[in-house]
Amino acid sequence: MTEALDSKSSDQSASPRSGVRWLATLGAVPMLVVLILPLLTLLFRARLEILMQSLAERETIDAMVLSLATSSGTVILTMIFGLPLAYLLAHRLRGRRLWEVMIDLPTVLPPAVAGVALFTAFGRHGFLGPLLAAMGIEIPFTPAAVMLAQTFVAAPYFIKAASLGIANVERDLIEAAALDGASGRQTFQHVTLPLAWRGIAAGAALCWARALGEFGATIIFAGNYPGRTRTMPLAVYMGFEIDFNRALTLAVILLLISFTVLLSVRMIFSTSSQLK
Amino acid sequence: MIFAERRAAYQWCMTQSAVALDSRPRYSGGGLGRGFWIDREGTEDPHPNPPPEYREREILSRSRLCHAPAQQSLRYAISLLSLLLILVSSVALSGCNRSTKSATTSNATLTVFAAASLTQPFTQIAHEFESQHPGTHVVLNFDGSQQLVEQLIQGAPADVFASADHRQMDRAVSASLVDSKSLTDFANNRLIMIVSKKNPNPPQSLADLARKRLRIDVADSVVPVGQYTLVMLDRLAADPQYGSSFKSGFLNNVVSREENVKAVLTKVRLGEVDAGVVYMSDTVGVPPQEISTIEVPDAFNPMASYPIAVVSKSSQKDLAKAFETLVLSADGQAILQKDGLTSIHHPTTHP
């Protein structure tokens, strides 16, 4: 079992032959220009004094706190409820391809449509509306609605990555564990989960990033109320209506937060996977 | 044989690998009877029987009816065909589109930037303009006035700019984006409260809007209609009949501040909020079974005046001026009135 593990990791870390590597570096430049240059130019357009000034404003702080709280909540809930689904999708499931496409759909839906779709399901006059109202729950225009909107568009990223991670765990290892007398739960806990951890962690990071940037479904389903449902992306958009520079600085703040959190998520998860 | 390539690649990898990872021979899977055993030296086992677990897996995957090569290629063919169909039809459609467009854009294109609340009347006025100026094509860009000014600042090409308020037009004037000589008001718009008919116990009067447990949607104060809403609330608060408690009660019920007025309308129509503040013109064409309206009396109603101007960078100012003239003409004013706006010639009449 350890041999198989070693061989897998050494395959992954093997660097491509120098010629190919040189070519790949050359070929990667256009893509890097498209992906990185706009972010760098955005950073350089922002002015430090406006940045500091916006950072001290109550509205900015409210939006930052709300964004961080809701997106973190979304990721935690998605990990709890998304993992079972990812597990199902990684194994033989009747009509698996259809399920996979269905789960991908929220990510391609135009944002406004996503918001209205959430209304039709969870709104006051939505499918579950009367049931929720009977329990005294009203979701739209609350922070819970923000999280629901984020989950709707961001969870598919987690589910896809996590199910890929689980599906890539070699069957031989699971069978070996079973032969050695491990129960299904033990196998999942000690074999599947640690080996699929990379995929799960990458999915969580993607999901978090997407949730943090969620705009369209939020502004429709959760509304746009300072301190309650106005997240950073909404604040950036509203900033445009007042002053271009203000919107720019808010965008830079959003960018810096995302960078910090994504990097730390990567670092935490990669060290923990090494320990295992 | 299809599997020769795979076999060769596998063989090559095995012989190339410098480190002995596993000295045991390995089994390369495939369909039943297509797999093979191979060891580090690249020699094949003469008995190509798969290990038992492979047999099991093969039987499972066979049961899914997708492993037989013939069926697989059929699958690929079908999906490839459908993709091709989508591609071809989209190309064909875009081609059609272009040909119809090129037929109408033989002479000139006039680009009009107009506030979102002008969508209906300006579409009709544009048709009118096109029939009066054969060969001219009018391109309309509707958005929140503040967005349009932002687009003009960023260099978007336009010939005419029609704003929903003076604040945004003033921004355009001070940035010399429009000719201030051509600047004139062309219509007024009233504020009106809309109430969803989907909810039980709907508010019946303005005073009802301050009662508890009501959801009200308004436009944000950065949008003109949001500014007017605040002015309306201030005027109501100054009146002893309503007072400041009305204003605070109303604001407590506000659940969202939209970035455009159409979002307010949508949420009221869906019944997700109980009431909203919109322009009179927004209610035109909304089925009466969806919403009811509460009038805002003249004394409290900040009449929104709509200014229009020719964009300074326009390369066809005569044509742009002609469009402005049409908007101000009796024909243009009639269209605006039909769509819920108030003509500048009769500023106080209710439509």
SSE blueprint and pairings:
The complex is a heterodimer of chains A (276) and B (351).
Chain A: H1 2-13, H2 18-45, H3 48-56, H4 58-90, H5 96-108, H6 111-122, H7 129-134, H8 143-167, H9 171-179, H10 184-213, H11 216-222, H12 232-242, H13 244-275
Chain B: H1 4-16, E1 26-28, E2 36-38, H2 52-63, H3 69-104, E3 108-115, H4 119-132, E4 136-143, H5 145-153, E5 160-162, H6 166-174, E6 184-189, E7 191-196, E8 216-219, H7 224-238, H8 243-253, E9 254-258, H9 261-270, E10 275-279, E11 291-295, E12 304-310, H10 317-328, H11 330-338, E13 342-343
Parallel strand pairs in B: 3-4, 3-5, 8-9, 8-10
Antiparallel strand pairs in B: 1-2, 5-12, 6-12, 6-13, 7-10, 7-11
Helix pairs in contact in B: 4-11, 5-6, 7-8
Question: Your description of this structure?
Answer:
The complex is a heterodimer of chains A (276) and B (351). Chain A is an all-alpha fold. Chain A has two domains: 34 residues; 229 residues, Orthogonal Bundle (MetI-like fold). Chain A contains 13 helices and no strands. Chain A is globular, with a radius of gyration of 22 Å. The N terminus of chain A is likely disordered. Chain B is an alpha/beta fold and 351 residues long. Chain B has three domains: 64 residues, no CATH class; 119 residues, Periplasmic binding protein-like II (D-Maltodextrin-Binding Protein, domain 2, 3-Layer(aba) Sandwich), CATH 3.40.190; 105 residues, 3-Layer(aba) Sandwich (D-Maltodextrin-Binding Protein, domain 2). Chain B has eleven helices and 13 strands. The N and C termini of chain B lie far apart (81 Å). The C terminus of chain B is likely disordered. Classes of the chains: A mainly alpha (276), B alpha/beta (351). At the A-B interface, helix 1, helix 9, helix 11 and helix 12 of A face helix 2, helix 5, strand 9 and helix 9 of B.
